[in-house]
Amino acid sequence: MGLSDVVYRVYGRNLQRQLDTARMPGHVAVILDGNRRWARAFGAPTASGHQAGAEKAQEFLAWCDELDIRVVTLWLLSTDNLDRPEEELIPLLSIIEGLISDLAAARRWRVHPVGALDLLPDRTATVLKEAADATRDLTGMHVNVAVGYGGRREIADAVRALLQEHAEKGTPINELAGTVTAEDIARHLYTKGQPDPDLVIRASGEQRQSGFLLWQSANSEYYFCEALWPDFRHVDFLRALRSYTERERRFGR
């Protein structure tokens, strides 16, 4: 082990000691940004960046598990990403399928798909559904995998499901319009029944929401990291957690 490794480990331990464990987030959501730029920096194929990002996602989940974070949401593919050229999209979908299959095979965490599965190729949708079925009864960390996800699409789907539910009951539209609440819509989101994210992390230096968990993140704390996702380190995660635990959350008040 080199000197830099020793310094890194010592720094990481010091960071972890600084965390106020009583104020740790229960739900951490991550925008895994920067895979393509990482590949370009090495003159490598785009797929190699996505593969490195998938490997980092597994590493990240282990860090969360060690700190007893109960819910993690990983944004792996947006609805906009589905418009990418086939020569990039097909390898990316294959990498995502491999990641989801690995998570299910590990039998450590509950895998929950978050997104519009009807927009995905049949094979990808099947892998997601099978992973959810295979891990449904596990009691470990809850891992949301956002694939084919868009915040506006999620809200539209939730409203559509709410209308369908009441149509089946025969509720007049005027009556529904007069009684519908935010909680009614929340019950039909992809993450229904889950706590909203406490902390949203975005890698790559970009400082925007990009439609990620639009409804759920209304009162979330954000942390923007300069590192491209494949370069995101354990100390970067600990810094994000330290920043979160040092904040006074106001929940819009």
Automatic annotation (TrEMBL):
It comes from Phytoactinopolyspora mesophila. Catalyzes the condensation of isopentenyl diphosphate (IPP) with allylic pyrophosphates generating different type of terpenoids. GO terms for biological process: polyprenol biosynthetic process. The keyword 4Fe-4S does not apply. Homodimer. Its cofactor is Mg(2+). SUPFAM superfamilies: Undecaprenyl diphosphate synthase (SSF64005). Its EC number is 2.5.1.-. Mg(2+) binds at D33, E221. This is Isoprenyl transferase.
